[in-house]
Amino acid sequence: MKFSSSKKEQRFWAYLFLGFPLLLMSVFVFFPIAFAFVVSFYDWNLLIPDKPFVGLGNYFELFKDEVFVKAVKNTIVYTMGVVPVQTMLSLFLAFIMNQKIVGIAFFRTAFYIPAVTSSVVTSIIFVWIYSKPGLLNYILDTVGIDSNIDWLTNPSTVLPAIMVLNIWTTSGYFMVSFLAGLQSIPTTLYEAAKIDGANQWRLFKDITVPMVRPVTYFVVVMSLIGCFQVFDQIFIMSSGGPDNSSTTMSYYVYQNSFKYFRFGLGAASAVILALLIFTVTAIQKKYLPPDYY
Amino acid sequence: MATIEIKNLKKVYPGAKEATIENANITIEDKEFVVLVGPSGCGKSTLLRMIAGLEEITDGEIAIDNVRMNELSPKDRDIAMVFQNYALYPHMSVFDNMAYSLKLRKVPKAEIKEIVENAAKILDITHLLDRKPKDMSGGQRQRVAIGRSIVRNPKIFLFDEPLSNLDANLRVHMRSEIKKLHKQLNATMVYVTHDQIEAMTMGDRIVVLKDGDVMQFDTPMNLFNNPTNKFVAGFIGSPSMNFIEGKIIEENGITFISKDLKFEVPEDLKPCLKEFIGKDVTFGFRPEYIYDKKYEKIKRLSRDMEITVDSIEPIGSESYIYFRFNGNPEHKFCFRSDSQQQYSVGDTFSIGVDINRLRFFDTTTEERIF
Amino acid sequence: MRISYFIVLVTLCFSCSNEEKNMRFSSWQSSQTEEKIVRETLESFKKVYPEVAFDYQPIPGNYTEKIQLMLGTGKAPDLFWLKGSTSPAYMSFNVLYPLDSLISATPEFDVDDFFPLFKDAFKYNDTYYGFGKDFNAYVLFYNTEMFEEAGLTSPPTNWEELVTYATKLTKDTNGDGKTNQFGFVVEPTIDMLMPFAYQNGGELISDDNEIKIGEPAFIEAFDFYINLYRTGIATIPSNQGAGWNGDVFGRKQAAMIISGAWLIPYLKESFPDVKYKVAELPMGKYKATLAFSTAYVIPKTTKHLDDTWKMFSYLAGKKGMKEWTSSGIALPTRKSVALENGFYQDSIFSVFMKSVVYAKLYKIDLKERWFDESEAAMQAVFYKGKEPEEVLKKLAKKLEKYKLN
After folding, report:
1. Count of domains in chain A?
2. Which of B133, B156, B178, B363 is the most exposed place for a label (fewest CB within 10 A)?
């Protein structure tokens, strides 16, 4: 294409248009990240003017802190539990949603609603569901399982309970992504495979799963990042308890920064969380790349 | 043996007002190459897919070798299909694409290798076995798709407009390749196309479809020379047959009158057309059988018809002359002329139609009278 | 183009500077009633000091975090509420304005009018930094209908009676095999345990800054407390699907509850048919209870000291406090106001006033994290079945790290 303006003029406008979003991002994204990184090397209390440099002191303190170690463990357990289940469930749901079943529009909506509902609202509802006289125990009772516990105050069930909640809420969102991916798979591929002798399972395994690989990659990455950062549900449902059984790294960052006035320590733990996410995503890119051919 | 018997076949899509296939009755013989042809939306692909088992049958029956197929899934019918967009598995190599069906049947690895390599040899794609579909041209991909079918060694091969996505030269080349394959494999083949030339050159017999109805099921020559109705007459042959709608009246014996022409019906036709006095008929005459009275002396021609040349399309070996009759400037017709004759726009001269090639159709029923 | 830039800049500058014109007062918003009374009290203040221009900016949510951020960025309100439990941290950070000189210059403020417990509540390093606007204390609420049914005519006065009464009051009222009325309801939080600890002669941290939570006196109190739950005569809110013990009491699932005066309007609004009376906490070896107070404080960086002090001395002074507490929403920290408003005569509020005499202030001189660590310890005992001795000893070691100096 030939423009009537000179190259210099084009360049000016290009930079101008790039400039604004770049400026916004610098102020709201890049600068805070860099600043947090710097803060992590100081004993930074917002209310005390004296902010001494402590080098790696915060980092050392983190690893000696029992609660931080617990938080890391909880975060990893949480992520390793939620990501695979969420990915597979949402793919499976999308596969079903793609079939011509009666009332499919209703199911599609029903599964997607939790994804667009505020996480605070769903958390509050689930606090009740998980409570001792709540819906979950009631349902288990009617099918004959006697489970008279408060799922959120029992140290061994609190994290799984929140994991299940998250799987349920976010699967709908990823299901939509997968659905879009599925619908871009040409039906003739399925027909050719059917003629070649594939049954439903084989169709799923040999056609659907490989063809939807780019979406899978996206879902896994987003799921990983989301899980590592889980905060809302912890904040509302369990406040990290009981006895830090459900404290995750982002909750730890929040507590230390806003409750204990220790921004330096909070920043250090945030940096470690970021490094963790980076590493995992990099590993994933290497061993599970998005291309299917 | 692989015969296909289609009895009273009907297909109605749920919620559709009209049937996509209406009461089709076709018997395809063993080792026959049958082409399903018709304009867009005539139902030819639907018919093919019903044979394949990819579409539900609303009514009627499809039987292969006298075994009812209606309830069987595609994989149990011993058929193979080549799709218009090839439908190759993009994430598998050519070898794996071809081997897939065998793998599903748990055929031993060594045997798979042998079968696939054989098929590859037949189609001359041995050098492509390790490639992925995206690294190949359209023609190569089509051959792989055919190879995938060959490997299955099915009773029946089905082709759904396989050459539509290829360029003209390649299409012509592939047509003969497929015909050759038919001889080599000696199998029953059902082939769908919208291109009537392709149909005419490839089919042993052709099914002409229109709006879900089978218009005629016959050999190419029969379709050309003895079309059962106006649609078939107009569909087969390029350029298509000329039609003039008019009436039969009693005048000088039996006369055909229309806006463009008026002439006394030739003797041979008088008996058939007698009962149509007072009725609407359509006069049909192919461009191939129109002759310039000045030059054609041998054939028995009809009476002179005065025409004026409207436009000329020279295609090399011959020219298509578009003309109108002097009586009616609106209606255009075509005839094929030896390009040696030099015509210009505006020329007027007389033409005649080979009497043996005149056709008349009942305007209301569209059935051929003569 | 250039002119519009200029206009934008000027407008921005103006709007920036405008902010600092009036003094600002902030509080949290826990209920509509509370806000109404705050505004009414401020109106009265306006009548007395019409020359003071102020903006009341209540903070609807995340109060502590917002105040912290505002203090840190130098944009704190000139006068704000500070919870007693967080005050040690703030005072140690040296962000509040020392009030000594202002007090001596305002004799009507009459520091000695405050109850001894509240007079020095917000003193740090011998300097005054704030004064409580009101107070609340833990007392015993008991359901008179349930008591009557169980043949009890008066509330328990000591630990043994607490146990026997609670046992009598724990029953299965609808014959489904499950207990649905408990004698008592406890919460697995440290502040609910502390009255018992004090009553047993224990304490969390001594006056000379020694961690005493791992000592036998505290452990014994915790043993007593947890056994109330483990023996089944006390329930906890989560077992009833309730958010706090007030809910449990309101739903008539417990006969006795330890709570503050905030329970009164809550019951009136949500569970008006519960018939109850209020009594002092049953005593252990000693009489003790916990008292809570929220202070008015002024940030060091205030630019409107005179105006702010006027409002401070009014609201925390006799007149302001009189109006504030006359609604019954909270109790006065000033002796004169208590007498004037008839708190000693009221059947319910007199109990609170009596408790003030032996109450201990809920104010722990440790870094903020002490609270979450203690809660984790409580949860370990209640939800993980650990034993108080082991847990408290571990906690004591941890708390060593959070000493303030």
Report:
1. 1
2. B363
C69–A46 CB contact, under 8 Å: yes
Please work out, in degrees rounded to the nearest 5, the angle formed at the alpha carbon of residue B148 by the alpha carbons of B146 and B154. Answer: 90
Structural domain containing residue A218: 63-287
DSSP string, A71-119: HHHHHHHHHHHHHHHHHHHHHHHHHHHTS--TTHHHHHHHHHHHHHS-H
Whether residue A133 is contained in a domain is answered as yes
DSSP states along C174-211: TSSSS--BEEEE--SSHHHHHHHHHHTT--SB-TTS-B
Among chain A, residues having any CB pair with chain C shorter than 8 Å are: 45-48, 67, 128, 131-134, 150, 152-155, 240-244, 255, 258-261
Smallest CA–CA distance from C93 into chain A, residue: A48
Q: Do C71 and A155 touch (CB under 8 A)?
A: no
Q: Does pTM top 0.80 for this prediction?
A: no
Q: How many CB atoms lie within 10 A of CB C324?
A: 22
Give the minimum alpha-carbon distance from A238 to chain C in angstroms, rounded to a whole number.
11
Q: How far apart are CA B236 and CA B238, in angstroms?
A: 7
Split chain B (370 residues) into runs of 10 and give each run's mean pLDDT: 89 88 91 93 92 91 91 90 92 93 92 92 90 90 92 92 88 90 91 91 93 92 91 89 86 80 78 83 86 76 80 86 80 80 82 82 85
CATH of the domain at A184: 1.10.3720.10
Touching pair B, A by Cβ (3+ pairs < 8 Å): yes
Question: Tell me: the pLDDT tens digits for C210-251?
Answer: 899 999 999 999 999 999 999 999 999 988 888 889 999 999
Domains located in chain C, CATH noted: 2-136+291-361 (3.40.190.10), 139-288+368-402 (3.40.190.10)
- Is A21 among the domain residues? no
Is A24 inside a domain boundary?
no
How many angstroms separate the CA of residue A258 from the nearest CA in chain C? 6
Is residue A197 a part of any domain in this protein?
Answer: yes
Contact B73 A194 (CB under 8 A): yes
Q: What is the ipTM of this complex?
A: 0.82
